[in-house]
Amino acid sequence: MNQRTINKETAFSGKALQTGADVSVVCKPLGTGEGIVFVRTDSPSSVSVTGREGVFSSEGERRTTVGTGGSSVQTVEHLMAALWALGIDNIRVEVFGEELPALDGSAKGFMEALRKGGIKEQNAPREAIRITGKEEVREGNASITLMPHDGFRVSYAIDYPVRSIKKETFAMELDSASFEREIAGARTFCLKHEAEMLMKAGLGKGADFENTLVMDEEGPIGTTLKFRNEPVRHKILDLVGDLYLLGRPLICEVSAERSGHALNGKMVKLIYDKYVKKTKDDIE
């Protein structure tokens, strides 16, 4: 496949999931090899940040952040998953605010917004990262393991102490079509007691029962599931988005168990240092 960008400038807006602030976003096309670039347009000190340069962060709970300080943008994982699914390699994301809007709480809303600008194929091949050996990060009972594989297969195991989620593993070979059909619409979630704790901590201000599944013993409060196992599918969505912070698709098998954004970020750093930065250093 060749690299892709959007055909024309595209804008969307909405409330941020954690801060509840009204946020506007403008996405613009970029040339080949320029990567996925985030810019804060509400901050005069903001500088552009891109995962291709190793500028990613595990700051903050329950969300992924790129950049630092006044240049950081929070909760980028759902947009990144949409960019992966659409095969978009080069795009400038201008954000007026510190966090991306929640939209529908999944990647689907971002995919729909980006498609309005059209997808444009560019005259340069995509740069993928092929995993050549076992790569693993662990923290307590959580882990992520990457193994060589001719394709992109993801397996995720969750284990929550509520009857509506319990212990479950979901695995599938992912490409653009299967991701959109089986993963993209899965919404972010939390347990009922977690929602109460988040609100006390000043987070989750933009959450509602449509963009966030608040799970109790019987199921989601105030809404119905789009998939029987929507929570584990959303964990795969988050993982795909976090891994795409590298700005390049991975060719491998990914097995994750109980991982979250912080551990995902450690794997991104490991792959960047071993497969991206090392290659750059060798060339130089």
What do you see in this structure?
- This protein is 25% helix and 31% strand.
- The two termini are 26 Å apart.
- The chain has a domain at 2-126: 2-Layer Sandwich (Ribosomal Protein S5, domain 2), CATH 3.30.230.
- Helix 1 crosses helix 2 (108-115), helix 1 (77-86) crosses helix 5 and helix 5 (230-243) packs parallel to helix 6.
- By secondary structure, the protein is an alpha/beta fold.
What's a quick, concise take on this entry?
The protein is an alpha/beta fold and 284 residues long. The chain has helices at residues 77-86, 108-115, 176-182, 192-200, 230-243, 261-283; strands at 2-6, 10-15, 22-29, 36-40, 49-50, 65-66, 73-74, 91-96, 119-125, 129-130, 135-139, 142-147, 152-159, 167-173, 188-191, 212-215, 250-257.
Which fold name corresponds to the CATH topology of the domain at 2-126?
Ribosomal Protein S5, domain 2
- The count of strands amounts to 17
Global morphology: globular
In CATH terms, the superfamily of the domain at 2-126 is lpxc deacetylase, domain 1
Q: Which structural class best describes the helix and strand composition? A: alpha/beta
Q: What are the segments in which pLDDT stays under 50 over at least 5 consecutive residues?
A: none
Radius of gyration based on Cα positions: 18 Å
Question: Mean of residue pLDDT?
Answer: 90
Order of helices and strands: EEEEEEEHEHEEEEEEHEHEHEH
